[in-house]
Amino acid sequence: YAHASGFDPLARTLNWIDRQGRVEMIPAPPHAYAQPRLSHDGTRVVASNVRDPENNLLVLDLTRGIVTRVTTDAALDVTPTWTPDDSWIIFSSNRGGGGQSLWRQASNGTGNPERLTQAAFVQGAPVVTPDGRHVLFTEQTEDGGADTMQLTLATKQVTPVLHDRFREMYAEVSPDGRWLAYTSNRSGPVEVYVKPYPITDGAPWQVSTAGGDHPAWARDGGELFLFYMTPDNALMSVSVQTASPTWRAGQPVRVLEPEQLPRSSTTRNYDPAPDGRRFLVLGRPIPAPDPPGLVVVQHWDEELKQRVPTK
């Protein structure tokens, strides 16, 4: 046998990385972090903890470096996001049976999780609208497709937002509440598109130019930035002018290289800071320590007979 070393092969750090590629490790205990999201006030991070069966949610206080587990049941709690006032965390979970449904939990860990949807097969991370009234999420359809749905928190009513024969996923509402970014395979390869919100009628504007996935918004003063991942895992930035009622965006600019970002095909593993100048990302897996020596016990069965005589 080998003496336990306390090594966790899933443990990672959380890092800041700026547009120049400079990395700053956040002083916090390593964990099996995934899907990190910054609170709106920038003081906390919520992340899922991908260590089966303890797939619970963790909240990291950035000012004190303290990690708190805010869900504790043996359930698959994943893809967390904050409400605009940072008082609640919306996430998907298989607790209660069935597929992945939407739930919410007080961000300070008090009380019990509350179920928000029934039998919804949620994919990717939900997003709360800036007014705090709605939650947008991706729902897998029975034919293998994907639609963008909207949950009204006051009534728990679910209605479709983007619903056609294409796979429309990972919707993100801009901080001003006027634009909806999402991914779709309407042109063949998956690209990032934008539509007005909340009225989503009409044809969308294509944002990415050679494939795109996992969009995210950030605001810097009067300018809006839209970020997305390329097929080779680079991060792109698009500046958006908000003075006009119509969509006006610049050319996509490459801001981070593939080796600087964690790869994920199912969820966004980065989060832009409020000013869009740096990004919260997962650090690389922590290297394993030297393997412990093996202890070999010979004739252990003879010792067992001496200690526990047979009748």
Concise summary:
The protein has one helix and 25 strands.
Describe this structure in words.
- Helix content is 3%, strand content 42%.
- The strands form 6 sheets. Strands 19, 20, 21, 22 and 23 form a 5-stranded antiparallel beta sheet that branches. The chain has a 4-stranded antiparallel beta sheet with strand order 2-1-25-24, with no helix packed on it. A 4-stranded antiparallel beta sheet has the order 3-4-5-6, with no helix packed on it.
- It is globular.
- The two termini are 29 Å apart.
- It has 311 residues and is mostly beta strands.
From the spread of the alpha carbons, the general shape counts as: globular
Figure out the total of helices: 1
The counted number of beta strands is 25
Main sheet specs: 5 strands, antiparallel
Enumerate the spans where pLDDT stays under 50 for 5 or more consecutive residues.
none
Helix/sheet category: mainly beta
- Helix-residue proportion: under 10%
The run of helices and strands is EEEEEEEEEEEEEEEEEEEEEEEEEH
Hey, roughly how much beta strand do the residues contain? 35-45%
